[in-house]
Design a protein that fits this description.
21% strand; alpha/beta; 719 residues; ten-stranded mixed sheet
């Protein structure tokens, strides 16, 4: 990776660990032992919004291909949707009840709303002032009604009559026609009418719901091959609103979209059948409490006030936008244009370097453990492992956790079904409460149960977030186990988009402990005694605190003391305070945290020895790596868990040690050192709580590009 790291390849390749040699440029000198200083932690919700600002920067960057910039813009909108669906309800309720004390207050809501309003305004300014003109320069135009030629209007009108009008049911509001149920995040229009209806009444407000079945972007045929012309469904409906109300005059209108609280809350102790209860909850999710209202920028105060009253929302929950109310749906434009010149160069993952293609994976694992670094290496290695297990008559049992496997076309789930049909014992631990994947997981659970698989739903009150796959095979007179542990989901699609680590092993003790965890999840008996695996919610939190304390004590004795953690979020307060204590004792700490981080780094006299970086790149950073050095003692763990309270105490999670020297070195080089040296895509948390972007011009290639170059070179050598 010498190219991408500005000549630092020797340090990257030769460093035995991210110690003083590789990190002295990134952490202050160890200080003398200090008393723990009080410190106000950063706000979690504001930290989530700061993460989205970093994602938005990829839409701003002119070194990113144009369609990819639009995609990042849409990702921010999607993230904000989820933020409101999951995090906004207590803030909104605090305003409704006039709360002035506690975690959620009127003041906290107003501060948060101001931050979101600013972020949304920047999104639409970027879209209108930068991206739309850039697309036009490439002959790609999303035409408003006023920009369409006579021929275009004729075509759009015909499309409206043929495809759209039959699906629209305008509802005039009166005592017999109350405000209709408006689904979460659906596109709607509110219309103000003049004149009387067919019965002589002056019901002046009507609602038009736009069905989700209609495509949000439509290609308009044109004679110029150098131009791609499109129309949004909102502009098509808007241009023909008058056609929906014959004999009435449309005086005002606006598109609108309401976001609702969508986090399913079930009293699992009080339900007889979790799957049935979740199905019922899913039906109600689309109509939860309103938390945000989006309208067109030109929406009149009469109409916006009407909607705010209808949804019982305070004024700051209203977002006036200069463009489509659902930017997420513009991802359809990316797919419709699909111009390679405006996209990232395709990345095709290489076959896992440590697996010999075509040879038995079981035989290879008997020789050594194997690591797969996705998406630089292909998830196909995992599918090949499972496929071999399904086809091998000596394999007796397959056990698998299911969190997010994807939609109906999941090859992994098809293979599990085939294993059942071949007479193997298949146990699937299906997490029904995987947020926003509940319905897919319920369907998979029912499909597997219908053919005879043993399906369990984990532990009441906890989410099973651990990722593991265990195969039991008869070999002579013995049974032998082969296992796969992962930081990411068994999802072939996201495996091409997320960075994750998959770990294959035939280690007798480790696989026996995996089997014990599966038995624990099925029987709900006491968990097994574990010597290698660390299991949440039983030991993980306590063990991590002990690791951090040991490093701090080593630092206080003047020994080498080092912590490097790569995780998606750091919000657990006990872990944060433990890190602060260790840093004040002199330990050098680097935290690579993609998203929310509540630990204030680099505060003079308090967290001088702690640096926090966030890497935002082409791929979503998803791997979890924990490195601790206390004197001569080094520990390296991979995990499914983020450093959040929910992962430590309210989920079933796993961490496992990596002891093979070559694999340890690979993980340290590729997942820790490379990211500490990233001078292109890394943001650094400042003492005031803000993130500093990389200096311009960005001279390096960044960690992800460096890894693509490394694995791409492997691909070239194989070719």
């Amino acid at each position: 990776m010498d190219d991408a790291q500005g000549g630092r390849s020797a340090e990257l390749e030769d460093s035995p660990a991210p110690t003083a040699k590789t990190a002295k440029a990134h952490a202050p000198r160890a200080t003398a032992t200090m008393a723990v200083q009080p410190l106000t932690l950063l706000d979690r919700d504001h930290s989530i919004l700061a993460f989205n600002e970093r994602v938005l920067d990829w839409a701003v960057r002119d070194d990113v291909p144009l369609l990819e910039r639009l995609r990042y813009l849409c990702i921010v909108s999607s993230n904000l949707d989820e933020f409101f669906e999951v995090r906004a309800e207590p803030h909104v309720n605090a305003v409704k009840h006039g709360e002035t004390e506690g975690l959620y207050t009127v003041a906290s809501f107003e501060a948060l709303a101001a931050k979101v309003h600013d972020l949304v305004a920047r999104q639409y300014a970027l879209y209108n002032q930068v991206l739309v003109p850039a697309f036009a320069a490439h002959g790609i135009r999303l035409l408003a009604h006023s920009e369409r030629s006579v021929a275009h209007k004729r075509w759009v009108s015909a499309y409206f009559r043929r495809e759209v009008r039959p699906l629209l049911v305008p509802v005039g509001l009166d005592p017999a026609h109350p405000f209709p149920q408006v689904a979460n995040k659906s596109l709607n229009f509110i219309v103000r009418l003049k004149g009387r209806d067919a019965f002589g009444r002056e019901n002046e407000v009507a609602i038009v719901k736009v069905p989700r079945a209609l495509p949000r972007i439509v290609r308009i045929p044109g004679d110029n091959p150098k131009q791609l012309l499109f129309a949004s469904i909102s502009s098509i409906v808007r241009a023909h609103l008058a056609d929906l109300f014959p004999g009435r005059e449309v005086t005002e209108f606006s598109q609108f979209r309401v976001t609702r609280h969508s986090d399913l809350a079930l009293d699992e102790e009080d339900v007889r059948n979790l799957r049935t209860a979740l199905r019922q909850g899913l039906q109600q999710r689309h109509y939860g409490e309103a938390v945000r209202l989006e309208v067109s920028a030109g929406c009149s105060k009469f109409l916006s006030d009407f909607l705010l009253r209808q949804f019982d929302l305070p004024e700051p929950a209203l977002y006036r936008v200069h463009g489509p109310v659902n930017l997420v749906r513009l991802t359809q434009l990316v797919d419709l244009v699909n111009d390679p010149a405006l996209l990232f160069a395709p990345w095709n993952p290489v076959w896992p370097r440590q697996l010999v293609a075509g040879a038995s994976i079981f035989e290879q694992l008997r020789a050594r453990d194997v690591l797969i670094h996705q998406p630089f290496e292909s998830f196909d290695g995992v599918l090949a492992f499972l496929r071999e297990a399904v086809e091998d008559p000596q394999v007796l049992a397959i056990k698998q956790t299911i969190y997010r496997t994807g939609g109906r076309d999941s090859e992994l789930m098809r293979l599990l079904g085939e294993a059942v049909r071949r007479g193997k014992e298949v146990m699937a631990v299906v997490e029904l409460k995987a947020r926003f994947d509940e319905e897919a997981n319920i369907n998979w659970a029912e499909a597997l149960e219908s053919i005879g698989a043993q399906v369990v739903y984990g532990v009441v009150g906890l989410k099973t977030h651990a990722k593991m796959l265990l195969v039991t095979r008869r070999e002579g007179r013995q049974l032998r186990r082969y296992g796969h542990l992962s930081s990411g989901n068994y999802n072939a699609r996201t495996a091409r988009l997320y960075t994750d680590l998959g770990y294959f092993t035939a280690d007798t003790q480790l696989t026996a402990e995996m089997d014990g965890v599966f038995s624990h999840l099925a029987s709900q008996n006491r968990p097994p005694r574990l010597r290698k695996l660390i299991l949440a919610p039983f030991q993980l939190h306590r063990r991590l605190l002990a690791f951090i304390e040991r490093v701090g004590q080593a630092a206080s004795r003047g020994e080498d003391a080092r912590i490097v953690v790569k995780t998606n979020a750091l919000t657990d307060e006990a872990l944060i305070h433990a890190l602060l204590r260790a840093g004040q004792q002199g330990a050098r700490i680097d935290l690579i945290v993609r998203g929310a981080c509540m630990l204030p780094a680099q505060v003079p006299g308090v967290s001088d020895n702690i640096r926090v970086r966030s890497i935002i790149g082409r791929f979503l950073e998803h791997s979890r790596v924990f490195y601790f050095r206390a004197g001569a003692q080094e520990d390296l763990y991979l995990s499914s868990a983020d450093w959040m309270n929910r992962n430590m105490l309210r989920r079933v999670e796993l961490a496992w040690p990596v002891t093979d020297p070559a694999l340890r070195q690979q993980i340290i080089d590729e997942c820790l050192v490379a990211y500490l040296y990233d001078d292109r895509d890394a943001w650094t948390l400042q003492a005031d709580g803000h993130y500093a972007r990389p200096l311009l011009p960005r001279t390096g290639k960044g960690a992800q590009n460096a890894l693509m170059a490394r694995y791409g070179a492997t691909k070239s050598e194989e070719a």
